[in-house]
TrEMBL record:
Its main location: cytoplasm. It comes from Nonomuraea marmarensis. Residues 1-48, 184-203 are annotated as: Disordered. HAMAP family: GrpE (MF_01151). Participates actively in the response to hyperosmotic and heat shock by preventing the aggregation of stress-denatured proteins, in association with DnaK and GrpE. It is the nucleotide exchange factor for DnaK and may function as a thermosensor. Unfolded proteins bind initially to DnaJ; upon interaction with the DnaJ-bound protein, DnaK hydrolyzes its bound ATP, resulting in the formation of a stable complex. GrpE releases ADP from DnaK; ATP binding to DnaK triggers the release of the substrate protein, thus completing the reaction cycle. Residues 184-197 have a biased composition (Low complexity). This is Protein GrpE. Residues 26-35 have a biased composition (Polar residues). Belongs to the GrpE family. Homodimer. The gene is grpE. Residues 1-21 have a biased composition (Basic and acidic residues). It is found in: Cytoplasm.
Amino acid sequence: MPARENRHEEPVIRDKRKIDPETGQVRDTSATQQVAPAEAPPEPPDGELAAQLAERTSDLQRLQAEYTNYRRRVERDRVAVREQAVAGALAELLPVLDDIGRARDHGELTGGFAKVAESLEAAVTKLGLSSFGQKGDPFDPMVHEALMHSYSPEVTEPTAIEVLQPGYRMGDRVLRPARVAVAEPTEAVPADAAPASNDDDEN
């Protein structure tokens, strides 16, 4: 009985010989050598899978939003640096433009100098520079600098009656305020306000 148990167990557990010692035949070992396939990890429940998917989607959306905001900040900073550099260069040219304006007013802007002046003015205009400040403009302390002050019955509000030096801006940025002479309306004397000394003089 023990011998029969050993014969039964040897081919299955211990005996790995390819030739059967009793029959001399080649054993069919394919069944015993088959490797069990790796078990796939258990799939998470539907609720957990949906939660994981929502979390990954949220992470991707957050990364995309952060990258978009980063690109916008970089572009905004790049534009601001460029505008600052251009504004600084234009501010240095304002005295030259003042000289050109004075020469034009005195009829001295002629010949080759006139062509150079026109080319310079065209170049700064292309960069966004524009002048402002006209006689008769309402006085605005945000864009005007009052160098002279007076009263006039011809105005109804503080008004620039003379432009002493034009102002310049680049876009919405004021590079230099317009320097003007300002007149305010003359205060009207009430018609029924008679001098207090009239009654005393009659008496």
